[in-house]
Structure formats: structure tokens, C-alpha cells
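Let us practice reading a record.
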Amino acid sequence: MTLPRLVRAGLLTGATDGLFSSVLATVFYHSTVTQLFQGVASTVLGKRAFEGGTPTALLGVVMHFGVAFGWSAVFLLLVTRSRRIGDLLASRNGVPKVASLYGPFIWLVMSLVVIPLLLHRPPAINFRWWVQLIGHIPFVGLPIVASIARRPGDTTSSSPAP
């Protein structure tokens, strides 16, 4: 069934990427988890999100998981429509191969297109940007791809029939 895969991918990706980002924010960037998720909310609320306390941070968490589910749904659609992706997933080390492409692809689209459109400013490509690009392989791409990829012995197909 595809719905359990989508739910698993969205929840797992939201959690792993949220944890990754939270560790970066608190340990390496000397910020807080609240400010991290207020920053997510600021893409729609603007700078006032940083004055909204816990409610805007919670909105940011909801948005974060919404994005995780959205990209999981995109990948599920790609897998069900593309024999090439299904074949690559079935190959040796297929899941990490695909995750190493899909995770950075997500970051590129989000950081170069979606977020700049929402914030009305160009992206800042700096050290943190590169950390996110690489971090999207294990913390975004891998949970999505591993959750949705067809497993050996699975009776439901995740790729189109011949």
C-alpha cells in the first residue's frame, strides 16, 4: 500500500530533518529550537514570526512536516510513474544512490526557488547552505527514499507494471 509508505516517509523525514536542524541551530549556530521553527514560519508570516513565541514556532513545526510530506508525496509519485527510478532503487545500493540525488535536489529547489520566492530575496550561499546541501542526503533523501522504496518480497509494486 502506498499510504503507509507516505505516512512513514513524511513522519520520519520531518523528525530526522527536524532533529538535524535543531542540533545545528543549538549546538553549532548558538540559537534555539524555537527560533529555528519561527524562522520556518517567517517564510509566510515575515519578521513578526520571531515575536510570536511558541505559537509561531509550532506553526513552523507544522509547516516543516508539511514540506516533508510534500516532498515524500512527490517522490512516491515519481516512483510509481518511472520504471527507471524503480530499476535504480532495485539495483545494488539503489536506495543510497537515489537518496544522494533526491536529498540535494530538494535542498536546491527549496533554497534556490521556493524560499527566495517567499522571502523576496536571493539565497545566501555560504557555509551553512553547503552543510544543508550535504545534510539533505542522510536526513531528508534517505528517510524519504528508504520509506517509499519497494522492499524484497513486497507484494505491492512501487513501479509501473510492464
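A brief commentary: Residues 155-162 have pLDDT under 50 and may be disordered.
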